[in-house]
């Protein structure tokens, strides 16, 4: 992501956060405990929202500009955590390292969604949970979906490889997760093309688990 985009991210998101995104984040993270991995942590919007029961937090962020904003957050925060520069497709952790993983507004941007989810599954312990909050294709709104398809080539270029038409719920299921809770809702105050979202919890199952 370009440096100005990293610097402007929090400002650009402020209205959306206040209109409900912040509450979604808080509610999703509240049940977490133990060792947690967050992928694509961006500027660290979730950091202050993790409950006390989270004993160890590792956050990844491959973009160096985002990471420098994140590093500032980490320095000024009270929680001890580790920041790692790796992309979600290549996580430098052993199998079954974490109790839970978190992805908020990241699976739209990763280069290879299937690989990223496979890696997250690999580093989760059997039965570990994935918390997700992602904007997705408007599969039930044909007009909006057409606009998403039309905008996507330009949007990806100006918004850090953010895709508008990913069917992330299906990708999570295909990567060996069982979705245990899901809500589909419009992200208020967001541009129409990124408004449809899915959020919830999934459990790492699958043939090898
Ligand atoms: C829209 S921002 C979301 C930031 C943060 N997760 C949030 O909830 O505000 C998308 C983030 O995904 C990160 N990202 C892009 N490709 C990635 C990849 N392959 N692996 C991990 N993170 C990635 C970007 O650098 C950026 O920080």
Task: Describe what this molecule looks like in 3D.
By secondary structure, this protein is α/β, with parallel strands linked by helices. It has a single domain (3-204), classed as Vaccinia Virus protein VP39 (Rossmann fold, 3-Layer(aba) Sandwich), CATH 3.40.50. Helix content is 36%, strand content 26%. The chain has five helices and seven strands; from the N terminus they run H-E-E-H-E-E-H-E-H-H-E-E. It has helices spanning 3-29, 64-76, 113-123, 142-158, 168-174; strands spanning 34-39, 54-60, 81-84, 98-104, 124-135, 177-186, 196-204. Strands 3-2-1-4-5-7-6 form a seven-stranded mixed beta sheet. Helix 2 (64-76) links the parallel strand 2 (54-60) and strand 3. The longest helix has 27 residues, at 3-29. The protein is globular and about 45 Å long. The relative contact order is 0.16. The model has no long low-confidence stretch (mean pLDDT 94). S-adenosylmethionine is lined by residues 1, 39-42, 45, 60-63, 66, 87-89, 104-106, 109-111, 160. Residues 1, 39-42, 45, 60-63, 66, 87-89, 104-106, 109-111, 160 line the site of S-adenosylmethionine.
| Count of discrete alpha- or pi-helical segments spanning 4 or more residues | 5
- What is the SS-derived class? alpha/beta
Residues in helices, as a percent range: 25-40%
Overall number of domains? 1
What binds here, in terms of ligands, is: S-adenosylmethionine
Low-confidence stretches: none
Order of helices and strands: HEEHEEHEHHEE
Biggest sheet strand line-up: 3-2-1-4-5-7-6
| CATH topology value | Rossmann fold
Radius of gyration: 16 Å
In round numbers, the mean pLDDT is 94
């Amino acid at each position: 992501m370009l440096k100005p985009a990293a610097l402007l991210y929090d400002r650009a998101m402020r209205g959306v956060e206040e209109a409900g995104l912040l509450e979604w984040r808080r509610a999703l993270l509240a049940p977490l405990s133990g060792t947690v991995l967050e992928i694509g942590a961006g500027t660290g919007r979730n950091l202050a929202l993790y409950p006390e029961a989270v004993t160890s937090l590792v956050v990844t962020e491959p973009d160096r500009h985002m990471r420098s904003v994140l590093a500032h957050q980490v320095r000024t925060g009270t929680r001890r955590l580790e920041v790692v520069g790796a992309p979600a497709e290549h996580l430098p952790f052993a199998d079954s390292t974490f109790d839970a993983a978190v992805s908020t507004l990241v699976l739209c941007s990763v280069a290879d969604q299937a690989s990223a989810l496979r890696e997250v599954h690999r580093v989760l312990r059997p039965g570990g949970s994935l918390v997700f909050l992602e904007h997705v294709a408007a599969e039930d709104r044909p007009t909006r979906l057409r606009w998403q398809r039309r905008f996507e080539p330009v949007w990806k270029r100006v918004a850090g490889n953010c895709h508008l038409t990913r069917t992330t719920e299906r990708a999570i299921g295909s990567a060996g997760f069982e979705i245990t809770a899901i809500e589909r809702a419009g992200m208020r105050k967001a541009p129409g093309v990124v408004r449809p979202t899915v959020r919830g919890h999934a459990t790492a199952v699958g043939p090898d688990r």
